[in-house]
């Protein structure tokens, strides 16, 4: 089988996240690849780089210092090629909710493109770095390398402009699908520095600093993005988005950004996610 751009992005993402070679080979074999072919593909993208920068520290409760959020002020923000409306700002944790980030046509195109690419979502074992399928995360995902084509490049630039962070610091765009009953239980998007597996993740591009979740459809019931320790739940609408930042200028990490995707009670949920790093990633 041909290793297309989607599989290359999947491999690069999972190598960077610390997945074991065997776990990735097994997934590819299950998808129809020859084992030797899968092994060669994994070998071509495997890197073993050690991080050279001191790890950030997770701030003790109440100790995180909230500095100025990078997102521009105002109720309407020019994001590369589009005006985006701000509908909510929260200072602790730093959360911004937007409308009109994507058009209806762009949402539909991302969904259509992603359907044939979907793979079961996984999470990284915090101690070993191995990629595991777990009950806490019951979605399917597709990955798009930065600048894969003109359509993806336009979205990359719009998201980077909205987040006010360099486009080259962004990870591959991920599109996720949650069917009825699917959820993602509360978790952190940053790599916890006290976990042994985190050094593998931060070796290329450093720590994650902020997340943008863009909603690609209207969910009939459920599927909210919840911040349980902050008492916040956000119901997404097609084309809207939520931004949240969890690393400040002192490289502290904000534990108040614990978040999850509530179970989809009716219908389905499609989202696109962009994670930003401290440094260029890729």
From TrEMBL:
Domain Fe2OG dioxygenase: 169-278
SMART domains cross-referenced by the UniProt entry: P4Hc
Gene Ontology MF terms in the entry: iron ion binding; L-ascorbic acid binding; procollagen-proline 4-dioxygenase activity
UniProtKB keywords: Dioxygenase, Iron, Metal-binding, Oxidoreductase, Vitamin C
UniProt-listed PANTHER family: PROLYL 4-HYDROXYLASE ALPHA SUBUNIT, TRANSMEMBRANE PROLYL 4-HYDROXYLASE
Origin: domain of life: Bacteria
A Pfam family it matches: 2OG-FeII_Oxy_3
Protein name in UniProt: Prolyl 4-hydroxylase
Originating species: Paraburkholderia eburnea
Keyword Oxidoreductase carried by entry: yes
Cofactor(s) required, per the database record: L-ascorbate
């Amino acid at each position: 089988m041909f290793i297309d751009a989607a599989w290359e992005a999947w491999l690069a993402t999972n190598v960077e996240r610390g997945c074991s070679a065997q776990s990735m080979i097994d997934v590819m074999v299950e998808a129809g690849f020859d084992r030797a072919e899968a092994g060669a593909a994994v070998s071509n993208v495997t890197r073993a780089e050690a991080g050279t920068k001191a790890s950030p520290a997770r701030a003790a409760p109440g100790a995180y210092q909230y500095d100025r959020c990078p997102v521009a002020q105002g109720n309407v923000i020019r994001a590369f090629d589009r005006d985006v409306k701000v509908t909510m700002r929260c200072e602790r944790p730093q959360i911004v909710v937007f409308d009109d980030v994507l058009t209806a046509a762009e949402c539909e195109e991302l969904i259509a493109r992603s359907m044939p690419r979907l793979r079961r979502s996984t999470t990284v074992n915090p101690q070993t770095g191995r990629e595991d399928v777990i009950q806490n995360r019951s979605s399917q995902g597709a990955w798009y390398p930065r600048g894969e084509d003109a359509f993806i490049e336009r979205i990359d630039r719009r998201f980077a402009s909205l987040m006010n962070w360099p486009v080259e610091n962004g990870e591959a765009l991920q599109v996720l699908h949650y069917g009825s009953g699917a959820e993602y239980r509360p978790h952190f998007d940053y790599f916890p520095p006290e976990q042994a597996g985190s050094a593998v993740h931060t070796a290329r591009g450093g720590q994650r600093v902020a997340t943008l979740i863009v909603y690609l459809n209207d969910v009939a019931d459920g599927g909210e993005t919840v911040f349980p320790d902050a008492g916040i739940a956000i119901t997404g609408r097609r084309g809207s988005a939520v931004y949240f930042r969890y690393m400040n200028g002192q490289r502290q990490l904000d534990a108040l950004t614990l978040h999850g995707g509530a179970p989809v009670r009716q219908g389905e949920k499609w989202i696109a996610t962009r994670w930003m790093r401290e440094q260029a990633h890729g």
